[in-house]
Specification:
This protein has about 950 residues and is α+β, with helices and mostly antiparallel strands. The chain has 19 helices and 62 strands.
Length: about 950
Amino acid sequence: MKMKHFCLALGVMIGSAVAAFAAPPDRVVSPVDNSQLVQLKTPVPRFAQAQNDAGPLAPTKRIYGMSLVLKPSAAQQTDLNQLLEAQQDPRSPDYHRWLTPEQYASRFGASKGDIGQITGWLQTQGFSVDYVARGADYITFSGTAQQVANAFHTQLHSYSANGKTQYANSTPISVPAALSGVIWGVRGLNDFRLKPRTKTVEPHLILDREQVVGTADFATIYDINALYSAGITGTGQKVVIVGQSDILTSDIANFRSWNNLGTPNLTQVLVPGSPDPGVVPGDESESDLDVEWSGAVAENATVVFVYSSDVDTSTEYAIDNVLGPVLSSSYGICENAVLAALDSERAPYQKASVEGISVMAAAGDSGAADCDGDFNPEGTPPQAEAGLAVDTPASFPEVTAMGGTQFLPGVGYWSGGAAVRYNPETVWNDTRLEGQFAATGGGASLYFTQPPWQSGFAPADGLRHLPDLALNSSNYFDPMFLYTSDSSLGSPGPTAIGGTSCAAPTMAGIVALLNQYLLSKGTIKQAGLGNINPTLYTLAKNSSTYATAFHDITTGTNAVPCAPLSENCINGSMGWAAGPGYDSATGLGSVDVNNLVQVWSGARPTQSVIVPTIAGGSPVYETGNNAWTFTLTLNEEAGFAATLTGMTINGTDYSSQIASLFGAASIPAFGSITATITLQNLNVSSAPADVVFSFSGTSAGANWNTAMTTAFSGPLAPMTITTMSNAASYSSLFAPGMLVGIYGVGLSTLVEQATVLPLPQFMADGVNATVAYGPGLANGAPASLLYISPNQVNMQIPYEVPVGAAQLQLSDAQLNTYVTLNFTVQATAPGIFSYSASGSGAASPIGGASATAGQSVSIYITGAGNLTPAVGDGEAPAAGTTAAPVEAVSVTVNGVPATTSLISEPSWAAGIVQITFTIPNGVGKGLQPVVVTVGSTKSLPANINIQ
């Protein structure tokens, strides 16, 4: 009892010490002399170059939203770093003890005397002081261009680049030496703002389907519905969205109406002292996306939209006033652009973490070439020259960097335009398809060292890697539903969108649900988890919780084309590949939301956690002669050493064999021991089998048991093909160059999707396909592959296969043999790719939501047969050329002939033909059948909605 009382008293003393931390001393101790100057590290924006200079701003031009960023002392920064670590350590008395802004100011901010000196100096320079941060770490002010020149000894110039005219400081800035030890830099001397990380959806369709992901689909795919059923809907929670544009509340209401959600619970905050930015094209849709989707995932939470003329200003104000425990930013810029100011740019996010705010940020949409994506003019071919780069603020260790995935095609994941279960994912990378940078950001920071929680996950290069997590972001494969009035996207109304801007706000909504769940269980006393990265990676150290709470993304890359001989360019490409566990393309993967919140409170064990794994997974297959051989590994995943003292398998005691099987009984902290075990004459009818282990742990000083259950089965079933069909229409007619889907079992042990052209002829697991043809099927042509999985392979029938009998020969990498399927090839076999949008809760027709008589519509088919000029297998037409079907093509709508204006294979696809036609008069209203005829073969009809 006395010991408990002592611990409680110690906790109270420490809490009081935090609240009553001594006020910081004054650091401005000499007179402010405007003739004694020190140059600061505030960078000159990249585009502020002589060749872009359009002359100085008018002296009377008023600049709003400038901020002096105040620098902590070395002792304060050390203390802050220690507190950030302690707040995430359950063994520390500071664990989850969040600071108020005023507590932050008294411990890490500038002194009241220094604030007075700095604000006084600003006023003597003619500036208006608009806001002094509650955290005493920045001061916002406004003034004229001439006052900026006088105070900071730099001129503000206009610069014209890439069709835009903006302003910036023309040289680095200087401040009086007396203030230089306290002033870190100045924000807002330019209007080169951070860029939104959205990708608009082009009006064309890829592969065998494209869905538009609605809110119900998202909840199904990422396993949120169980939480909703349990009342975890975000009630009482707040999610902060930061932006730099006005939004229309009607757009938010319409989004929720389309998705059968309730009335928006939206609060809008214009940052004091900032002029109203008005509706800004490009930024408006970004804010719509962030507000709509964060509030859709946490459907009953309050969304606080904080806006100003600069998203950085919005962010620092939201953090300074703790407007909510979760904050999402979908803006960024490559680290190189602000390299000299990264420490000061990071400061608000460290402040957010010690206040208990969890921050999500988009990881960027330019693949591994973040700087090239930011600085190359829009519309230029994607060819990186600046080397590997990542996005900021996503690169800050206190931020959860959200990367992007795309859903793999397959059967059984969607039905009637709605998701029915988790759809496996790959890395989002549409760069080659789009002809511009369009892929998830990720890679190594140029500046920040590797946080301790990322050790053992990211490459051992000592650098912070991102992303941390990834969620659906593709604008080609299954984009996200959006309702917006943004003029840059066309007419107001429903549309779809992609980019890692989709991942950040949806994860913010997930964290709001997590906050509510933990509060409901009493795991936390107030909403707020601060930096969630340490816990995410702790969960991932345990292979059991990793498999439960995360979807490991193992296929695809964020590689982009690069200029020969440019930095990091290897064979014309640079980037990061996905693989088992953490990778710099999708981080830890995506999340199973319900499982994540269930295991969260157990993420910090206090004794050894031993997780057994069997190589190859479960079941273990017979290796011959009624023997089962497998490799068993015991992983210690909590950081506490343990000793294996006993082991039984199906009731048979193997304890005496521990030393000979494993080589050692001791398992070091975060270490493992491995044994190869053969079980002879096992009665498989007794499967599943229990494997039970006994341990003594040094941390607990006691014995405990753990167990695993696996199944022992007969020999691995051979590859079997059940059917093959047109990838668009699922018909059983086939033509040269057509994309087909092959379905069966045992087709591969891995999942992979091709992301670049030309398509490969070999994929993971050694899978490859050949089409035999000619007399006696003596000739053979290798097929180009789009996708492989255990139950489905998508490929292109080679163009050189002639009309007549043919045979598919698909390799079985497991058994080093192949299986066959006989089929017949005809000259043409058109199938129309259909388009479904579930954002409205109902299937939509091909070519978009609707069309009217006289309107031009594009659809996409496969099975058009040979092209002229000829196109190689797995390839798109050569640059600058077009390729059309050899056979005549015609289109009817409800039997009425339509006039076509374009019939050719697009530059971004293989095996697909685009047909653009005009809806004829007299076809009637409502859903009407579209039929494409190529040569003498008609397609199955696909509906289009005529208004």
